[in-house]
Amino acid sequence: MPYIPGEKTPNLEDDRAVLDPAIASLVEAIGEVSARHGYEAAFAGELNYSLTRILQEIPRELIRRGQIKEELRYWIQPLMYGVLNDVALEHKRRVNVAYEAAQIVKSGDCYDTPYYTRLVEVVDDSGAVIGHQEIMLKRSEETLNVDVLDVQIRVTPSAESKAISVKQHREEVAEVVTGGG
Fold this sequence. Notes:
Helix content is 51%, strand content 14%. It is α+β, with helices and mostly antiparallel strands. It has a domain at 109-181. A hairpin with a 5-residue loop joins strand 1 (115-123) and strand 2 (129-138).
């Protein structure tokens, strides 16, 4: 999760309010240009181009603002690659893994390696499935051909957690993030 101050962040300017409109404009432009090509994956080329141009323009903008002195320095390159890698890995973890779990439930799993993951259902107090969790296992005959294990994780809010308000929770989190002030 990129740690960019937003409206929930106390005592800091809302960087997202500046960045989000520019991002929305870029996304709209990518959609507009990719629509001309007439196939679903056309946006990938425009996204690649946009990221390539952003990576080239950021050092130039930082020079204009006096934040760095040279456009091409060794440390700038791995820093930008690291950001791109982090974005890809986090997107994979937060979006794609959940989608893969839904597809495993729908169509079945295909992994039979010596170690693998299997899903378990996460249920609420009423027993309704609210999601899935991966469990890491060593291959065994009992789990080899099972997509969702016959085990459930029940999520039951404690009396204390029911009593705390969302506002109180945000204040407590903000205090931890800012160090109390």
